[in-house]
From TrEMBL:
Its EC number is 5.1.1.7. This is Diaminopimelate epimerase. It catalyses: (2S,6S)-2,6-diaminopimelate = meso-2,6-diaminopimelate. Gene3D superfamilies: Diaminopimelate Epimerase, Chain A, domain 1 (3.10.310.10). The lineage of its organism: Bacteria, Bacillati, Actinomycetota, Actinomycetes, Bifidobacteriales. Belongs to the diaminopimelate epimerase family. PROSITE patterns: DAP_EPIMERASE. The gene is dapF. It comes from Bifidobacterium simiarum.
Amino acid sequence: MSIPQHVVKGHGTGNDFVIYADPEGIYEPTADEVRFLCDRHFGVGGDGLLRLAHPEDVADLDAERAERLRAAGAEWMMDYRNADGSLAEMCGNGTRATALFAQTLGYMEGPGGAPLRLGTRAGVKILTSLGEVPGLGGNVFHIDMGPWKAGESQAYGVTIPDHEGSARGTFVDMGNPHVVAVLEDRTGRSLADDATLPAVADLDLSRKPVVDPVIPTDQNVEFVRVDAIDEHAGTGEAFMRVNERGCGETLSCGTGLCATAVTLRQLTGIGEWTITVRGGTLRVRVTDDNVELTGDACIVGEVTLRR
């Protein structure tokens, strides 16, 4: 096998991963190995695989891209693979799980220490360890997720096989592609008047949503309920579920949380959101220039693989 014998299992608010370090650049996984490790019945189980390696040791990066990451201060890269073995540009929850793993290895300082500049296929992400934060968890990290791009508001149709109804979605690029659909609005602002899909909690997201017009790269699709808005404080609260390309529904999606906050800012003007997913609660702050994500991570345990 081209993977080490010892791996760890971790997650970021329920978005779970098989994780290992490859400081010598000798354990580039094959797609079959990723699928095996992420299989919940025959492998370790996970929404994806995180390999912590130096940028120059990630085979799909050419020398120029690897050098750009190094020049931006990224000694380490999160080489992320979806559970189906495909490469992924970015994973917000994965960056936090990777950072916590890096702390255990001494590659990153703890709370109060220097941030980690982590390379990804979507550029360098800056993570700061906050330790325990009430309401968020015991191993919380703040991530500067970098710039975002959004398309025309609600320009995409979204349906789900075997569900009646439809919704309108907004395309958001967080380094990976998203379409965000608001299905419920409990604030009286008519944010979901065009949505006829069932309530967010009632959706069967084991079924891959259909987006029209088709996005060639495929996409993650987020379904959102807006719960509260405080105009005076400039904050909001929401609930989100997500179907991720390459793995289906996950309990959380970091870039999806950011895309949701970008969409809600576009609809309401509110830029700071506390968003609950099935795996926990996170905070997102959106400005004209970037997105910041704050949430917990956990290392569950170590696994010794049998050859």
